Hints:
It is a single chain. The protein is α+β, with helices and mostly antiparallel strands. The chain is built from two helices and six strands. Strands 1-2-3-4 form a four-stranded antiparallel β-sheet. Strands 5-6 form a two-stranded antiparallel sheet. It is globular, with a radius of gyration of 16 Å.
Amino acid sequence: xxxxxxxxxxxxxxxxxxxxxxxxxxxxxxxxxxxxxxxxxxxxxxxxxxxxxxxxxxxxxxxxxxxxxxxxxxxxxxxxxxxxxxxxxxxxxxxxxxxxxxxxxxxxxxxxxxxxxxxxx
Length: 121
């Protein structure tokens, strides 16, 4: 059986760890609005780079941060995805992705040191 365990959520969306039985899969499900994407660690890092480029690029647009439209566009093997958003959503997306990266690194560190904080203990 496959289970989705929430990692982190905020106004931008929810990130889930995918587990099949007791084994965690390498991909994370990122749910943003009505779109869900499965991403591995490197794809998540690339997504963070895209988010930061959007933030950086829009700082030059001359509009106030509240009014400037932002958009994030990325391609997957199945579809092209484009998010239009304001600065709050972009900041929330950045926070969500950073939390996923912290979680992934922590999980890796725990596995390397054979530390188990499962709920069954």
